[in-house]
Amino acid sequence: MNGLPEFPTSEISELLAAYALGALEPDERDFVARNLPRFPEWQKELDEYRLAATALAHAAEPVDVPLRVRAGVLSEVDAIESNVPLQRYRKAAWNATIPPTALPIAEPPERRNWKRTIPRVALITSMPATIVAIVFAMYTVIIHDQITEQQNELAEFQQVQDESAEVFTSPSTERQVIDLVASNDAPFARGSLFVDKSENAAVLVARSLPSLAESEQFVVWVQTGNNNEEYARIGVLEPNDAGTAQIIIDPPDLFDRYTNVLVTRESEVDSTSPAGAPILSAGI
Amino acid sequence: MSQQSPKVRRLPTIRRVNDPPTPVETSDAELVHRVSLGDTAALESLYNRYARVVFSFAMRIVSDPMLAEEILQEVFVRTWRQADRFQKSRGNFGSWLLSITHNLAIDEIRKRQRRPQKSDSVDVSDALFGLVDEATNVEEAAQAGALRVRIKTALLELPDAQREAIELAFFGGMSQREISAHLDIPLGTIKTRMRLGLKKLRQELETEHL
Fold it and tell me: Which H helix or E strand runs over A266?
């Protein structure tokens, strides 16, 4: 006697198969889990079912893994090892890697003042064919413009992706994550700087950025020296609707030369040194 | 501007897949053993091998890229924390990892059934427009494509009714009783379909040497 109610073998097998598939009710699941250690033959049969069940996982259509998850895993592992409480990277990183230009929206074509260039009579007599030809031509131009625009966007996107991947996966012992500090002007802004000094590159990810006036933009700078001697303009952060943005930092000089990174809100499009309100900053 | 000194965390060393720190032929068990000793490079090797299948599997169940990312991250953090618990006798590492993935994903969809949907969920295409981790593609693509075809073929060998019961349970997170109610078929029939289907699938996979 094993202390269990008598079960036909097929019924045990059904329980074990459903257990492997995760299809039991909680009470049934507990029953199996409780009794598994007592019955090696159950465990053996369950292992067979599990092998079959987990093989099903490989049948799922492949989906590309976003790079940010690797950074998230490594950051969390690092935090575990350092006993540093760390908010999940993923919570900070949703949308972080979506370039605002990833989904281009085609602009409507400009209207052309074709009436002036075509004689009235000819226009009237050839109206139907002309309309068809013009519509066709405009359609061709629109499609061509859209394709060109999308190709350009994709090329830019690919470049950002390649550069970011380079930073994240480079064989470096000099990789750091630096948390950016928000200013009083943007107390809810958050940001991280992923620096790889051996590659002399970094990725700045910012989130919860405040909204901008139409003429304003967020500009990223790196600064040399301790007395604000010199700034190098890195580029413009283009936040998405959620206020999240990222930029590759490929500084003109060695990272070791720079002491700070700064994000400011600028109203001058081509400003060469920060004049607007600081938003985020950190020492490098 | 606040002038606090920034918090700096040094990340573990990361190496390129093209120039692996550990030979490609290093077994999963060996890598897991190294992970249990605190070797982050070994964790990355496992990540390169399995992240894509874990992510794809999680996506298949939860159909939500953000949730799937969360699950993927949790799976590998658990691998880090629990590597010493991995017992080779309970199956291979891949099965262990995918079992964790399955449990987490099913828990998520059951939780989701019990609570209102978040209104701020992000469109699938948005989340997938993030940067792609090519390292996981390189490592995984070597074998996974062929494996996927063979498993799909084995799955297609099952009678439709058995396959449906298995898929509703495994990918849909439904219990036998829920499937019975959903399909309006007696519970006993569903139980039998699952058992026979899984048994047959195992046999098919064995003939494929999987």
Answer: strand A258-266
Q: Within 10 A of B183 (CB to CB), how many other CB atoms are there?
A: 16
Residue B165 has what pLDDT? 94
Buried residues in B110-126 as b, exposed as e (16+ CB within 10 A): eeeeeeeeeeeebeeeb
Sort out which chain B residues have CB atoms less than 8 A from A76's CB and list them.
Answer: 73, 77
Neighbours of B52 (CB within 10 A): 25
A67 Cα to chain B: minimum distance (Å): 4
Query: Which tens digit of pLDDT belongs to each residue from B82-141?
Result: 888 775 555 678 888 998 999 999 988 888 765 544 434 344 334 434 566 666 655 556
- Give the pair of three-digit tokens for residue A127: 């109206």
Is the ipTM above a cut-off of 0.85? no
pLDDT tens per residue across span A13-45: 999 999 999 999 989 999 999 988 888 899 889
How far apart CA A74 and CA A220 sit, in angstroms, is: 26
Disruptive mutation site among A63, A166, A248, A279 for chain B (greatest number of B CBs within 10 Å):
A63
**B contact test, residue of A30, A56, A203 with most B CBs within 10 A:** A56
Give this prediction's pTM.
Answer: 0.55
**Other CB atoms closer than 10 Å to residue A225's CB: what's the count?**
11
Q: Does the beta-carbon distance from A23 to B175 stay under 8 Å?
A: yes
